[in-house]
Amino acid sequence: MEGMFRANCGYGYVKKPDILLNEDEVFDPKALRPVQKVLQVLVYMGDGWRSDFGPTHFDFYSPPDFRVQIGIHGVPADKSMKYTRTIEDDWVPLWNEELSFPLTVPELALLYIKVIERDFSGSHDFGGQTCLPVSQLRQGIRAVRLRNRKGELYKSVRLLVHFHFVDAA
Fold first, then answer.
1. Using CA atoms, how far apart are residues 26 and 121, in angstroms rounded to an integer?
2. Cβ(76)–Cβ(142) below 8 Å
3. For 35-167, CATH number?
């Protein structure tokens, strides 16, 4: 729910979307609907881990191997999870990968972004996360700040991404 309250900077009440306030029709999240918009997320690069973490936090003998996981949480038809490729041995990874998400109810969709450091020999390490309401995203290039597992902002860790909406035909 923390992602939904980012719409008002975490200060409390968030008005329900109009689709939920229609008195004439009960909203059914499982109903089949046409795609309204396609959210295209171009992940350019990430930076700041070297500043916020020690040199051996992720790997003892080499720079980290980062990968981005991006997903949509919302009505069942909109839910999906996609991944960038892993950039090996780089504190400032450059992905330049575009991921597309068709949305049937964009008013209820949340964009979840998580960075992991892949360990090919064991469990993966957490590199940061954020959750943003799709209705609050603005088109263009953005520096998205990431948070720790408790939801606190890292001082320096950011992803440079480009958000673009395409109306469904």
1. 50
2. no
3. 2.60.40.150
